[in-house]
Specification:
Length: 126
């Protein structure tokens, strides 16, 4: 394990999610992570491996829309991103600080500008 603070850690080529009770392997570090949040209030609804978060996004949008709440569906934003120590650190910070996710896209852009080693493209927004 690394000494990073937060529930997500990079260890031996894997992304792990740790709690006080257990540690779960999320994906390989060559995969993609995603966050799903509300752009109005900064509530972080989901985070983790991209395909799982994307499925939750689709399910939530469909549920809001079919229930007559399409305006709520429009406030859900899905951001996919490559896995680096910096993006893991920012994800952990978003989990630990309510509303920080509202700056997540901006922070990804800053990280990409700061590092020549960032994968290109490193993220996408939906």
């Amino acid at each position: 394990m690394t000494e990073e603070a937060g529930p997500y850690v990079l260890a031996q080529g894997k992304v792990l999610f740790s709690t006080q009770l257990n540690t779960v392997e999320i994906c390989d570090e060559t995969d993609t992570l995603a966050v799903l949040y509300d752009v109005n209030d900064g509530i972080l609804h989901k985070h983790g491996e991209k395909s799982k978060v994307s499925m939750d996004h689709e399910r939530m949008v469909k549920a809001f829309t079919s229930g007559g709440y399409s305006e709520f569906a429009k406030t859900l934003e899905l951001v996919e991103f490559s896995i680096t120590p910096e993006t893991i650190e920012e994800l952990n910070a978003c989990i630990g600080t309510t509303g920080r996710v509202l700056r997540f896209k901006e922070r990804l852009m800053d990280l990409a500008e700061e590092s020549e080693n960032f994968p290109k493209p490193f993220g996408s927004m939906h």
